[in-house]
Amino acid sequence: MRVVAYNIQEFEKETLAKANAKVHDLTLISNPLNLETIRYAEGKEVVIVSAGDNLDRHLLDALQQIGVKKIITRSVTLDHIDLLYAGQLGLHIANTPLNDETPQSIAHQTIANLNSWINNQCLGQACHCAFKCAQKKESLL
Known about the structure:
It comes from Sphingobacterium alimentarium. One of its GO terms (molecular function) is NAD binding. This protein is an alpha/beta fold. The chain has 5 helices and 5 strands, in the order βαββαβαβαα. 35% of the residues lie in helices and 13% in strands. The protein has a 5-stranded parallel β-sheet, with helices on both faces. It is globular, with a radius of gyration of 14 Å.
């Protein structure tokens, strides 16, 4: 998948690159995601953000308009994303819900989400899409 990760801290670069193992076309950006930096997401299918990126209606509209279909946050919290509006736009949303919040664990969870999406698998507890799909229903059983 073609992916851009925003708000990347220096200590995250190596862990994300190693977890990715050159599977996905991954661009790492130290800038936060906003309307001025959205240009880095052009041509990408997935945007990876941090809890410091505020994905309100305006930003979600802009992401959808340039073709972004999926968003992963490198956090447990989702309060920085307008989930209801993202669902209305048909965007897939995932987080990194495990209690282990080390950079290595977050990187592995992030890449695992990408791998599941590319293999058309449900993300289970990491899935926060508004869609009612058979995959989600099966993964919760």
